[in-house]
Amino acid sequence: MDLSPQDAEFRDQVRSWLAKNLAGRFAGLRGAGGPGREHESFDERLAWNRHLAAAGLTCLGWPVAHGGRGLSLSQQMIFHEEYARADAPARVSHIGEELLGPTVIAFGTDAQRRRFLPNIVTVSELWCQGFSEPGAGSDLASVATAARLDGNYWVITGQKTWTSLAHVADWCFVLARTQAGSRRSSGLSMLLVPMRQDGITVRPIRQMTGTSEFNEVYFDGARTEASLVLGEAGDGWRVARFLLGVERGTATFGQQIGFRRELDGLIALARQTGAAANPLLRDKIARAWIGLEVMRAYALDTVAGPDAPVAAGAAGSDGPGSSGPGSGGGTGAEASVLKLLWANWHRGLGELAMEVQGAASMVADDAPYDLDSWQRMFLFSRADTIYGGSNEIQRGIIAERALGLPRQARA
Ligand SMILES: Cc1cc2nc3c(=O)[nH]c(=O)nc-3n(C[C@H](O)[C@H](O)[C@H](O)COP(=O)(O)OP(=O)(O)OC[C@H]3O[C@@H](n4cnc5c(N)ncnc54)[C@H](O)[C@@H]3O)c2cc1C
Questions:
Q1: How many Å apart are CA 131 and CA 196, to the nearest integer?
Q2: Considering only CA atoms, which residue is closest to atom 45 of ligand 1?
Q3: Nearest CA to ligand 1 atom 37
């Protein structure tokens, strides 16, 4: 990509800042964290995230008026690429910064903006996303967690599940049914709920990687102030759809650099194990390389192009056909295409890594018999095609929005 002089200068600034600061107490954090490895050096990564904030390197795309940097899309892309290239640790504040923050900017009252945005910028408060429930995943409109007003408070009862990072979060944005007897997408509200209170119990879910990045969250008379409803009470579906639409965005370019590094590592491993001489594996490795190039070209054309994409997230039965306030100029299916591309590619890379490792992929070396990074990546990447909206849901969106096929039958 040809860079303007300003963008080239920005890239040099970010690159040298990262080189200088990923040193000393932060030197050991290179490569730490990320999907499947959120348990790694959490406290140190939190400190690193606050160090980034102190240098003005959080919330880069937010408007200056709301505490962000107001950077252009190309500069945000550059930051994420340089960040990944430096092997900087996964940030711990992405749910607040990338999901909740932009939604508070779009729908929040002045008081809510003043209360929450500064603490996201400085990484003083962490957030988690309380959408999925045992009976409401892809079909998000089936949310059953209920909240009723009691004086100055909402009182919340119900259960959320798969709640990433709930065990470290200070706050949760909870999609709850606030109108008794309402059905589907009507009568829902987005409540901002403090996590540290007696009415909330967080139970970790142990994953097949052996770690627990997500949780069950039980609300048993949990409370939040009446004023902490984001958007209008009863209009939570619109707010939720907007929030799902801002998921990913320019961070996708950093993700692709991370994928490139994994692929390079796999090629080195294939040379080392002799797998590179196997014609079938050579073919698969070349296909993986091509897949990554296709992904990057598509992302450049859509995320950074004039028709910025929308909702790639879970979209329930009332979801795929309609467009929310997050809609860009495209068909609304662009983000779904990108989600399908990267999720399938990365899951495939995990499978390929096991083939390249051969029989060694089936054993853990020494006590404490932990997984190696390829085994961990293989196991966790099974989730790629589920979270952020499953493959089937993305294909439903593409069928309806991009191809104009008839809407799927709804209950
Ligand atoms: C690692 C990870 C982290 C997550 N973090 C969070 C989080 O922080 N907060 C949160 O709220 N949620 C989170 N989730 C939940 C995630 O959004 C859901 O798992 C996802 O939306 C799918 O919902 P479900 O698991 O209930 O599966 P279901 O919706 O029950 O789907 C089961 C299967 O049926 C298919 N299916 C469902 N509906 C249709 C349809 N209409 N047409 C065709 N096929 C269909 C699905 O594709 C899937 O294969 C996370 C999930 C994972 C794996």
A1: 18
A2: 392
A3: 138
Q: Are 242 and 202 in contact (CB under 8 A)?
A: no
Which of 136, 182, 141 has the alpha carbon at shortest distance from 162? 136
Q: Single out the residue of 372, 394, 410, 326 nearest to residue 36, CA to CA.
A: 372
- Catalytic, 225? Answer no
CA of 257 to the centre of ligand 1 (A): 26
- Of 166-170, 238-242, 311-315, 329-333, where does mean pLDDT reach its minimum? 311-315
φ, ψ dihedrals at 36, nearest 5°: 85, -10
Tell me how far apart the alpha carbons of residues 70 and 59 are, in angstroms, rounded to a whole number: 8
Closest residue to atom 35 of ligand 1, CA basis: 392
Q: What is the pLDDT of residues 337-354, one digit of tens each?
A: 999 999 999 999 999 999
Q: Let me know: does 277 contact 181? Beta carbons within 8 Å.
A: no
Which residue carries 């950074």 as its tokens? 304
Residue of the CA atom closest to atom 7 of ligand 1? 163
| 35 Cα nearest atom in ligand 1 | 1
The set of residues, in sequence order, having a beta carbon less than 8 Å from that of 212 and lying 6+ positions away, is 39, 167, 204, 205, 206
H/E stretch holding 217 reads strand 214-225
Report the C-alpha gap between 288 and 137 in whole angstroms: 30
As for ligand 1, residues whose beta carbon falls within 6 Å of it are 128-129, 131-132, 137-139, 162-164, 214, 314, 383, 386-387, 389-390, 392-393, 396, 408
Instruction: Give pLDDT tens digits for 176-201.
Output: 999 999 999 999 999 999 999 999 99
Ligand 1 center–CA 147 separation, angstroms: 23
Among candidate residues 83, 78, 47, the one with its CA nearest the CA of residue 61: 78
Of 38, 98, 125, 247, the catalytic one is: 247
Q: Helix or strand or coil: residue 278?
A: coil
CA angle 145/207/29 to nearest 5° reads: 105
